[in-house]
């Protein structure tokens, strides 16, 4: 199975890869998202480190059960060969109705088929008030005309 665009990445193909990842995560379907990763993909996410699609599915299932009304924007930071660096922000609320914005960076490494073999994420989360929310599109992929992180000043 291949997952275009394939490495080596240039700026255009890396931006395409980033947007495809953003759209998939905004779809909040763990089994679908996990198909973008190698079966033995290595992850570091905050304090969790694990390997494999089954663990990715379990992680994302738990994440999107706890992080309600999740909306994410990713932006390419850099690319070289089979690696892409991304910065991102996402907004969500908890079951009590409190809103949060998380900011972070991800380092991705891909195999020759375009599957992500490694994901290293560093993330900080801050509480925000409802009037500080910036991501207001309907649940699902971000519309093409919605501003990105740089345009939003994030």
UniProtKB/TrEMBL annotation:
Signal peptide: none
Listed Gene3D superfamilies: 3.10.450.50
SUPFAM superfamilies associated with the record: NTF2-like (SSF54427)
A Pfam family assignment: DUF1348
InterPro entries assigned: DUF1348, NTF2-like_dom_sf
Annotated protein name in UniProt: SnoaL-like domain-containing protein
Annotated source species: Palleronia pelagia
């Amino acid at each position: 199975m291949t997952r275009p665009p394939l490495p080596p990445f240039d700026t255009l193909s890396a931006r395409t890869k980033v947007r495809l990842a953003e759209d998939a995560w905004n779809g909040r379907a763990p089994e679908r998202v996990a198909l973008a990763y190698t079966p033995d993909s290595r992850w570091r996410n905050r304090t969790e480190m694990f390997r494999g699609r089954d663990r990715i599915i379990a992680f994302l299932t738990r994440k999107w059960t706890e992080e309600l009304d999740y909306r994410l924007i990713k932006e390419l930071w850099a690319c070289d060969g089979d690696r892409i660096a991304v910065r991102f922000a996402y907004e969500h609320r908890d079951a009590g109705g409190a809103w949060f914005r998380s900011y972070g960076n991800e380092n991705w490494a891909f195999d020759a088929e375009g599957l992500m073999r490694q994901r290293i994420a560093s993330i900080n989360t801050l509480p925000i008030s409802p009037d500080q929310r910036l991501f207001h599109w309907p649940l699902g992929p971000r519309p093409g005309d919605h501003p990105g992180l740089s345009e939003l000043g994030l």
